[in-house]
């Protein structure tokens, strides 16, 4: 079971709405969903918690790239909702489809970007990429300072337990009642 809420900062304070993530497939989709929650380029937070195992916060400020924090990347990787937050960049790995880069520029000197190796070489590379895609570090990952200017310091965010995290975040932002109304 998961809970996801959008917290949009407005002139009048924070507004909350619960949200379904069933149609969200990528971090870019999630950022677009967050941007739709506000009419201005105000700050929007997407808060997600799952089964007391992990929580994540995504901060979207206007058209800037989303900033992401996940409390336990390994636990989040086992969740379809967590996988949305765990981009290749955040995990520090190459894009999932490295052949897409070969299509842009033929760097290997072969005709039309075709690899020179045998099919066994291709299979080994695919298995290695799949193994890399399935691993994520245990523990926190991402930008632990994404809420610092809103009243929650990095060390506090890092110390939150997944069971109470979103309530603690809402307390720090001064919007506990707003978040609890949509819970």
Indicate the topology.
Elements: E1 2-10, E2 13-18, H1 27-35, E3 43-50, E4 54-61, E5 67-70, H2 73-77, H3 80-85, H4 88-91, H5 99-104, H6 119-134, E6 141-142, H7 154-159, H8 165-173, H9 176-182
Antiparallel strand pairs: 1-2, 1-3, 3-4, 4-5, 5-6
Order of helices and strands: EEHEEEHHHHHEHHH
- Helix/strand class: alpha+beta
Ends apart, CA distance between termini: 13 Å
Strand sequence of the main sheet, in spatial order?
2-1-3-4-5-6
Strand content: 15-25%
Mean pLDDT: 84
Given the C-alpha coordinates, what overall shape results? globular
Helix content: 25-40%
Task: Write down the Rg.
Answer: 19 Å
Query: Could you give the count of β-strands?
Result: 6
Low-pLDDT residue intervals, each spanning 5 or more residues: 100-109, 127-133
Q: What is the count of helical runs?
A: 9
Biggest beta-sheet profile: 6 strands, antiparallel
């Amino acid at each position: 079971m998961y809970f996801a809420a959008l917290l949009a900062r407005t002139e009048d304070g924070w507004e909350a709405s619960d949200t379904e993530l069933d149609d969200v497939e990528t971090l870019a989709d999630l950022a677009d969903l967050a941007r739709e929650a506000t009419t201005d380029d105000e700050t929007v937070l997407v808060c997600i918690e799952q089964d007391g195992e992990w929580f994540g916060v995504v901060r979207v400020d206007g058209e800037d790239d989303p900033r992401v924090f996940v409390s336990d990347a390994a636990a989040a990787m086992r969740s379809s909702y967590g996988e949305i937050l765990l981009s290749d960049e955040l995990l520090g790995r190459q894009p999932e489809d490295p052949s897409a880069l070969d299509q842009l520029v033929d760097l290997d000197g072969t005709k039309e970007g075709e690899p020179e190796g045998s099919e066994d070489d291709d299979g080994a590379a695919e298995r290695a990429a799949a193994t890399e895609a399935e691993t994520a570090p245990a523990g926190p990952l991402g930008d632990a300072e994404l809420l610092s200017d809103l009243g929650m310091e990095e060390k506090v965010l890092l110390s939150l337990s997944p069971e109470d995290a979103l309530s603690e975040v809402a307390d720090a932002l001064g919007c506990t009642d707003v978040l609890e109304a949509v819970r």
